[in-house]
Design goal:
Blueprint lengths: L1 H26 L4 H22 L5 H16 L3 H12 L3 H24 L3
Helix pairs in contact: 1-2, 1-3, 2-3, 2-4, 4-5
Length: 119
């Protein structure tokens, strides 16, 4: 059931992101990057709320639906902040700091590798 709910929440997040992009493009074509920034900021805010408010045992699946599903569909960045926040809240501060420090580095390396795969 959780998989289904994550899928539906992800679809909803994708729709919200599309609507933000559509509205930005229809009003001013060059403002599209700001729709991406807005979607990422909104998703990070929702993920932050879910990380710290949905902390009970019964809320774990709901937190997964909100963060992995909705925020994952909406953003490109929310889980990158939510997971370290959850780890820090659960007293795994070293892992939290490592994730925050290593994620951008690993993403840059993966991007460069991806760019060079076809050469």
């Amino acid at each position: 059931m959780t998989l289904f709910l994550v899928s539906m929440a992800g679809a909803l997040g994708c729709i919200v992101r599309y609507l933000l992009e559509y509205l930005a493009r229809s009003r001013h074509p060059t403002s599209r990057p700001w729709a991406t920034v807005a979607a990422n900021a909104l998703g990070c805010g929702v993920a932050g709320w879910a990380s710290y408010r949905l902390t009970g045992v019964l809320d774990t699946n709901l937190r997964t639906v909100v963060i992995t599903g909705f925020c994952g569909g909406l953003t490109t960045f929310s889980s990158a902040f939510a997971i370290p926040a959850i780890l820090a809240r659960e007293h795994h501060v070293k892992y939290s700091i490592a994730l925050v420090a290593m994620t951008p580095v690993l993403c840059i390396v993966a991007f460069v590798v991806g760019v060079n795969l076809g050469h």
